[in-house]
TrEMBL record, chain A:
The chain crosses the membrane at residues 13-34, 43-62, 68-86, 98-121, 141-159, 180-197, 228-249, 255-272. This is Metal ABC transporter permease. It comes from the Bacteria. It comes from Evansella alkalicola. Its main location: membrane. Keywords: Membrane, Transmembrane, Transmembrane helix, Transport. CDD domains: TM_ABC_iron-siderophores_like. SUPFAM superfamilies: ABC transporter involved in vitamin B12 uptake, BtuC. Pfam families: ABC-3. The keyword Transcription regulation does not apply. It is a multi-pass membrane protein. It is found in: Cell membrane; Membrane. The keyword Thylakoid does not apply.
Automatic annotation (TrEMBL), chain B:
The lineage of its organism: Bacteria, Bacillati, Bacillota, Bacilli, Bacillales. Residues 11-253 form the ABC transporter domain. PANTHER family: METAL TRANSPORT SYSTEM ATP-BINDING PROTEIN TM_0124-RELATED. Signal peptide: none annotated. Gene3D superfamilies: P-loop containing nucleotide triphosphate hydrolases. Belongs to the ABC transporter superfamily. This is Metal ABC transporter ATP-binding protein. GO terms for molecular function: ATP binding.
Amino acid sequence: MIQVFFQFDFLRYSLYTGLMIGFLAPFLGVFLVVRRLSLIADALSHITLTGIAFSLLLGRFYPLFAGLNPLYMGMAFSVTGALFIERLRNVYKYYKELAIPIILSAGIGIGVVFISLADGFTNDLFHYLFGSVVTITRTDFQMIGVISAVVVVLIVLFYKEWFFLSFDEDQAVISGIPKKALHFIFIVMVALVIAASMRIVGILLVSALMTLPVASAMRWAKSFKQTFLYAVIFGEVSVVLGLVLALHFDIASGGTIVMLNVIILLISLLLTRKRM
Amino acid sequence: MTKESQAQPALEIKNLSFSYGKQNVLEDIHFTVPQGSFLGLMGPNGSGKSTLIKCILGLLTPKEGSIKLFGKPIHQFHDWNKIGFVSQKANSFNSGFPATVFEVVSMGLYGKVGLFRFLTKKHKLQVREAIKQVGMEDFIHQNIGQLSGGQQQRVFIARALVSEPELLILDEPTVGVDAKSVQNFYNMLKRLNKERGMTLILVTHDIGAMTEYITDVACLNKCLHFHGNKEEFELQQEDMMSSLYGHDVRVITHNHDHHDHDHTHDHDHDGSGH
């Protein structure tokens, strides 16, 4: 079944892109989950939708923008949204989670207005919402490749600092770790990965790929490093199998990927006895 | 260490005041902690102990006054790995965090190792050594969340020790730790102070249990009510306690080396002035 992915260029791009996403999303997801920020992925994916809708709208009225990959605008919105979230978390110091519904609803609200102005839901938009195996282009692939490389380098460089900050922020600050700069880099990275993931899993399901494999991994892992290992394995298995199934049965890839993650999670819950 | 820096006190606080909004929490605090001493910093709940510690650690900026660490004003102080800190366990970690004892103790070296650098084999040996020192070597690959309160606290001590700090600050480290572990814990602190010459500041609301270990005492309730060595403190401790806690509170002195000490006194801080 998987050979078919190597027969066509566009399928090969989806497979490679999927492999990158299957690594990146759960990997960053581990940090999000242990920092209790898993909902940030949802907020950022919805603001990405706003960006996509805006790009499609511009494309409709100004032919100049029609050729522009909506991914760029999605990324720009996602990163801006991430910065707003950090800002709001500082403004509402004692209600940090409030930033998430604010950005999430603002994203959806503005997004829906753009979509209506652009004449409603198109087939294009459906792919962005739920992912697709067949719409990955060469430029998507290249851009996501660049993002993956940047994220991997950053993770290698700052793994220990992010680990410490996630575990115990005060202690990390006392030992001289630059909290603000590292949080900033992290959230921008998350925004980029979310925008990059939406081609495969779709905007509405990106957060699932960041959190479900982590939820499963935490049942098995005995250490923080192992949590990453399991999360990435589960992420990759679900993406690759999900793409194969999506192609075979002609369904949206986001759905199959999430379904597989739910199955992995159920199995993990059944087979492990651990109280979190 | 140069001679000059040895002569400097580990901590020097002058005229320190701090307020949250209009409410003064600390007023005109003044004291010095010489290197090699073991200070018990005591005071009732809400007396500003933790705020003072946060100022010393640079997490809060005081309204007035100066703090010097090893002779350097705090805003110019960069040797943070000289300073170890162990906080109250309850308030600063998520016990479901999927990390092992080894991983947690390694964090103690991250500041020292610095950005863009990685732990070497030598660092990993140091981590193992610190874990051994607190007697947790059998748990090295266990999840931190699965340990008891006392064991977790020992792990956090190991994390503070691994970077070999010269000044170790402990903020009520024994809250929620069983009595037997508390004894072992205090004995360990005493060893660090005596054998390694590490300067210690221990924040507690129960100085009675500590008197055999410490060398100096400071009593805080918004302002500093007492600062001096242990002998001076013992002479006037009854007065001190009542001025601090608002009514007559007596202190039991636990002393396990000399059994001629008095064990029978009342010991009821919690009923005081709340």
